[in-house]
Design brief:
Layout lengths: L1 E6 L2 E6 L6 H8 L18 E4 L2 E4 L12 E3 L1 H4 L7 H8 L9 H14 L5 H7 L9 H20 L2
Parallel strand pairs: 1-5
Antiparallel strand pairs: 1-2, 3-4, 3-5
Helix pairs in contact: 3-4, 3-6, 4-6
């Protein structure tokens, strides 16, 4: 089955079984390795990406549903020269420990601050349901709040 979508600003067409999880198309077909496999059951969030601006767990999202959609992976969130506020805050707050789950956390957090520009601790707890085995939740919460501030200041200054 041929499926076309836009990923990180580029149109892609893949020919694969439509029921293949989008995660495996991203990693194995498109060779974008930032999106991680964690549990395969949409429970841990390591595979979180954005589809049309929504945080989606790609391990349980069949690629056939990506037809015509806009997809962003961690590789498309920002770059070294122009990091996304989440990426900048993650660096400033020294969030990662092992780092494996961090792309999924950053993608979920970026979606959160897009919808809620000033999230409270409760907002973060209710919306960021990813799992970090290293337990860096406190640093992530600080980084999410810092990213919201960075994003707000960049809007004011533009």
């Amino acid at each position: 089955m041929k499926i076309s979508f836009n990923i990180n600003g580029n149109t892609q067409t893949v020919d694969t079984d439509g029921d293949t999880p989008l995660l495996w198309v991203i990693r194995d077909v498109l060779d974008l390795k930032g999106t991680k496999f964690g549990c395969g059951k949409a429970a841990c969030g390591a595979c979180t990406i954005h589809i049309d601006g929504e945080a989606i767990r790609s391990c349980s999202y069949a690629v056939k549903y990506a037809e015509g959609k806009n997809i962003t992976t961690i590789e498309g969130l920002g770059n070294k020269e122009n990091p996304h506020p989440i990426q900048q805050a993650w660096i400033e707050e020294i969030v990662p420990q092992c780092g494996y789950c961090q792309p999924g956390f950053m993608m979920a957090s970026a979606a959160l601050i897009e919808k809620n520009p000033n999230p409270s601790d409760q907002d973060i707890d209710e919306n960021i349901l990813n799992i970090c085995r290293c337990g860096t939740y406190y640093r992530m919460r600080k980084a999410i709040k810092k990213a919201a501030e960075i994003k707000s200041n960049s809007i004011i200054n533009s």
